Batch of 4 targets.
Target 1
Amino acid sequence: MLQEQRFELIRRHLEEHGSLAVQDLIQLLGVSRETVRRDLRQMEQKGLLTKVHGGAVLKQVGEEPSYEVRTVSHRAEKQAIGRAALSLIAPGDTIYLDAGTTMLEFAKVLRPAGSLTVFTNSITVAATLAATSAKVYVTGGLLRDGEMSLSGAIANHVTENFFVDTAFISAGGITIEHGVTDYHVEEAELRRIIVERAARAVVLADHSKFGVTAFTRVVPLTAVDVIVTDAGLPEEETEAICALGVEVIRGEVSG
């Protein structure tokens, strides 16, 4: 059984019972005590449950960590993802860049050698690219404080009239069962619109997003062409995603 499958099974049983003992999980999963403890530790780090003495209790899907926290969390991995994603852009491309801290790291290393058109709903991404030769369009819409992202009816209406070669989107969580999910309904809707209008959909997400189900669904994994992540994603999860026809690129942390 893959680790992600164990995570989903643990979560389902926690939703049914509210709590589970380590011994119950050993029998349920058919794995060692150490494997159960490691899974619980990693699930707690992902915000999926709370460890207690002898077991775990369910932690409900809540608010996304603040922008300030996410800016410093897994920063080296996000920088590695940004560098790896550069291989997916060619001179003359028209691309969409989503909001988010991983996308910002991508924008920081994006220095187009030729013509490049960028469409974005992120004020910070647009400001970062203002110093480059890229032609930048912004969606407009309702500004989300702190995140500096735009969404809502105006953003949706504008985006429906654009078509791009590649849409680079963010994710609050990624699982085989639920696909790409996010914490914000309005931004999830905007992502669905741009994915439909993109010749290629690429998700940028560090390894901590895998095995996590956020509040609302964005798209199934079958709607994604490429996932760019870091080397922290286990090989078994990589293989399971590739089996769905999704290419996985793993960026290496430098130094």
Target 2
Amino acid sequence: MDWVIPIFEDNNCIPAPKKPRLDTFDNNIVEKVISSSRVSSIKLDSWVNRHRPKTVDDLVVNSRKIEELKLWLNKSFNNYDSKILVITGPTGCGKSVTLQVLCKLYGLQIIEWITPLDTTIHHGSGNSDGYISFKNPSEVFLDFLIRATKYSNILNNSVNNCDKLIYVKDLPNIFVNKPSIFHDVISEFSENHLKTPVVFVLSDGALQRNLFPNELKIKCKISTINFNPIVHSSTLKALQKIVDKEKNMKTVTTVPSKTVLSDISSCCDGDLRNAILKLYFNIFSTGCAQLNKGEPRDKKGKLLKTSVDMDKKLDIFHGIGRVLYPKKENVVSDPKCEVTTNYKFTHSPRNIIDMYSTQPNFFTGFLQENYLSTFTDIKHVSFGADKLAIADLLLGQWKEKDLSHVYGLSVAVQGLMVANKSPLREWNPMNKSNTYKTNKEYENNSLRIRNIFPEFQTTPRDTFLDVVPFLKIFQSYYTDEQLMYIKDHSFK
């Protein structure tokens, strides 16, 4: 009965492929499995801590910076006036590690400030009578400094305040947004409670200038040590030392070549922490594959810096130049047509905006100060000035300033690049923004008013506008400094 076909059978079906046996696996798959197991068996944190500098000889920081920090530590614990230190420098240049190694050398206990995630205080026992209050982060920070200075750790054998040091690296956001609050906290702590040395470690240069202006440094006797990026030879030496140590411990079967280590050091630009992380993933993930394969090199085989690397280091002046002197590339819609129908910018406005999105007011202020001398047509000037006016409005004190400031920077950058159709190709000096100068003078005057007239509980602006002009009328006792200030700023 060939004409009868069961409905449960399909003559056209293809049998399922047989599963390959273990011995038929691809070698690449086996290598990937082994590589992933090695990465999971050797955790990143433990590996980095294993190669963390333990002694001064292990440090690759400039020896002069180590001596400066040693000198300050010796003076600060021997009744030296300066008990507050600010260590600045780029990320990964060894600021914190150097401090920790020297504190271990001198037997100093480090008390580190960690910004709390929650500042709520629960009162009561959870019944209806209990309530919740919120403590100001600045008060929490000041309370930490006072307690760390006043009390000793019961788990430590120290009996006095001369063998501990306060370490601050992560500051509350309220200090970043309002540096004046931080100035008040440091001034109060320095005048009334400063007994234990305090070290601030900062990587952002602009943040350091805002939090520690010259007036505050002079008033509170604050010292500063600036660390430089790790040089290429020192980074290469540190990486080679790690590789030799891993080879002696027999934790790796293959080690990177000197060319790979040189490439890692060149890519990190003085960031030793980043170089160590790249070395870890190169050893345990890629099987010591050569980095940046195919990239241009010099005669000695050293990796050359490309335009991408240069963009990462683009400073403020190059960014302003790309906006005020925009370069354009012709784009032809039809390859057979020789007439240009459109254009595009050589340097993407979006990349420029992303690069300076953290300091929109500072960058836009430079544009406003220097754009006029690069235009050749008054109509183009009118269009660009209109866009800057819109940007200035968006850069105001809005509630959602993070979003509005990015929009303001975008309008300023793209508006000027589109408006300046034929920029003036000649050298012009770059002028600093008057807005920055005005804000600096305002901060200095506010600080001076607050120091001269501490008895007035008003803001510095209200004191200057509503109080100082009328003080000359009243017959009262003033200090010489107050009399001089009143004479210069009161009504004639």
Target 3
Amino acid sequence: MRKKACAQKQTKRESWNYDVNCLRERDSEGRTPLHIAIANNHTTIINLLLLHPDIDLSLRDRAGASPFYTALSVRNNEAARRILELLPSAAEQFDSRGKNFLHLAIQKGDIESVLFLLSVNVDVNSRVQDSIQNTPLHLAAVQPNDLLVRNLLLAGARIDERNNHKKTALHVATEVGNTEVISALLQNGTDYNAADCEGKVLYKYTLFTLPE
């Protein structure tokens, strides 16, 4: 009986090790077993799937979500970290609009996801792959509070980086009247004499008080 049980375990182990098809099966939403396990926080199953040598971490569901994106969406940071250990480029993947996970998290005002991404050292100066080429700091400049901007700066964001309209984050914050972000940028030494592509210099058309 013991030999039979061992043989059955060995057969299951061999099937697990070599049958890749089960890893790539999809449900009606295009989700793989890994997507589903992550979405439901099934830690044991997640760990087993990630141990498989043929796991494909680039597969996306019908909504375009990768396993890493799914992990971020459900706040499963442990699964996200495990995925990054296996596929370091997972956090830098761009969607069809040229945005990566940091860009999307900033635009959603999702400070928790932003802090996680900064903790795993994503490129804090990565640009949106479109005609404007905004940096994460440009995107954060229109958000309603200054937490995103301050954390990006602490992580190494270049404060006076310009987009393709020659605008810095301060230009962007000024255009939308974002006083908290304007203050944060000034406190961190941004160049308020910088001119944009139209030749506008910030101190000539802003209402905030500049430092002496």
Target 4
Amino acid sequence: MKDVELRELVEAELEWEPSLNAAHVAVTVHDSVVTLGGHVETYAEKLAAERAVRRVKQVRGVAMDIEVRPPSAKQVDDEDIATRAVNSLRWQSNIPGSDIHVSVNRGWITLGGDVEWRYQREAAERAVRYLSGVVGVTNEIAIRSTSQPDDLKQRIVSALARNAAAEAKSVAVDVEGGQVRLSGKVHSWHDRKLIEDAIWAAPGVTSVKDEIRIG
């Protein structure tokens, strides 16, 4: 597919997304890699724009250059954002709020600390990303290093094989300690995410280097 045709598909999908005002979002495409520029009013809209682009199956990569510009009437000072973020983390039953710390600079939240599982790391980010006044989130929460089972690689391969949509046969898995490296090729972002989710569910995994290509 030509880049100009893919750009039209992406623009149509952005317009189709109900939680996004795409009037000020610019789209460029080069070799099936999409770059989004321009600006939106909320971080939630920026995330919605990225999700919309990833739904277009011909897209091979996404670069997010969108700026978040809250209207002056909706701007919130950093102290209030930090307080709301800490409270939001405390209210989550699936994450250890006491192990996570929050800092805010000009509306940008940085999360630190450590947790046992990746799902807890992601839950912490979800808990703060939609707060009023937030313009971005950097998630620096680490996954604690724990003992890895001797058959970790085999467990991962078996988990991928159980998920037919993950196209396990086209993915190579290398394991060193708690670090996992993935390579190969799948048809869509959805398949790639299924694979990553399966890997992170394995006990002892502390990092995943995903080099899987889309195509």
